[in-house]
Amino acid sequence: MSELSVNHLLGIKYLNESDIQLIFETADHFKEVINRSIKKVPSLRDITIANIFFENSTRTKLSFELAEKRLSADVLNFSASQSSVKKGETLIDTVNNILSMKVDMVVMRHPNPGAGIFLAKHVKASIINAGDGAHEHPTQALLDSFSIREKLGDVAGKNVVIVGDILHSRVALSNIFALKLQGANVKVCGPKTLIPKYVESLGVGVEMDLRKALEWCDVANMLRIQNERLDISYFPTTREYTQQFGVNKRLLDSLDKEIVIMHPGPINRGVEITSDVADSKQSIILNQVENGVAVRMAVIYLLASKIKQ
Ligand code: CP
Do 29 and 159 have their domain in common? Predict the structure, then answer.
């Protein structure tokens, strides 16, 4: 198979295992390209991509923009806070106006779950979901699995624990779908109030004790508390959260093996992870960010190949 089974990247839920392997093989090639002295390829000179962000972002926004530029695409950047959305323009009107300028692909981050799915049904462009509320963040999960594969050789058979605010995390849901599809064993760990009831139906184990979770895993993916999505208090205090679910060097050093530490960012240092762990040799946090460019180049390139047909 040399093409994706989908025309949009709306969520990992819509991909199959072959799609993921194709994205990774393509990303392997682009990772080699971006480490050359000339980091650019002319592949998408005839493609125009709009990045439309209705929510704040550092890594995803910059990474998509760089990936597009490395592929020689023309790039438009749209920030909702400085746009006519503030004057009441709807999402569909906004995007149709952008598309009338001959844009081929839209990368969108939006606070509402399903915003990308909605857009894909109503506009004529390839849509990439760059995070939709607490629903999915597919390119984050792809770069996370790509980074595990790079570090440990394979994702299949690895034990991965996702720690923290699972309930409000699009990173958690996309990672669960991606890891299960590739044959990893997945557990979640966090306060009971932040573990969704349906999680076990996805084939995921629940471990409330962080030490036991870390003893079990090969990889721990630490998530921040999504304060912007918390309408009520889900745990008594941040200090108590850190005592029960924060990873520190002392805890890691007391395990009888060396595990891999991941974090999608942004980090709240001293809450879910201490600096001596985030900056340690066990951490692959900045490798994840580096891999994000190659993985996003692969996703854009493969979806653009379908537009050109
Ligand atoms: N991991 C991630 O999505 O980070 P940003 O919110 O900074 O894009």
Answer: no
**Residue 114 and residue 195 in one domain:** no
Query: Which strand (E) or helix (H) includes residue 210?
Result: helix 210-216
The string of pLDDT tens digits covering residues 105-125 is 999 999 999 999 999 999 999
> What is the total count of domains within the chain?
2
Q: Is the CB of 111 under 6 A from ligand 1?
A: no
> pLDDT per residue over 209-246, tens digit each?
999 999 999 999 999 987 776 776 888 789 999 999 99
Phi, psi of 261 (to 5 degrees): -110, 130
Q: Are residues 223 and 295 in the same domain?
A: no
Note down the domain range covering 142.
Answer: 138-286
Question: Do 197 and 245 have their domain in common?
Answer: yes
Whether residue 70 is predicted with pLDDT greater than 60 in this model: the reply is: yes
CA-to-CA distance for 32 and 70, rounded, in angstroms?
Answer: 12
Residue nearest to atom 3 of ligand 1 (CA): 60
pLDDT in tens, 97-106: 999 999 999 9
- Atom of ligand 1 at shortest range from CA of 265: 1
5 is a domain residue: no
Specify whether 38 is located in the same domain as 77: yes
Find out whether the peptide bond into 264 is cis, omega within 30 degrees of 0. no
In a domain, residue 6? The reply is no
Distance 229 CA to ligand 1 centre (A): 15
In degrees, to the nearest 5, what angle opens at C-alpha 116 toward C-alphas 115 and 122?
A: 95
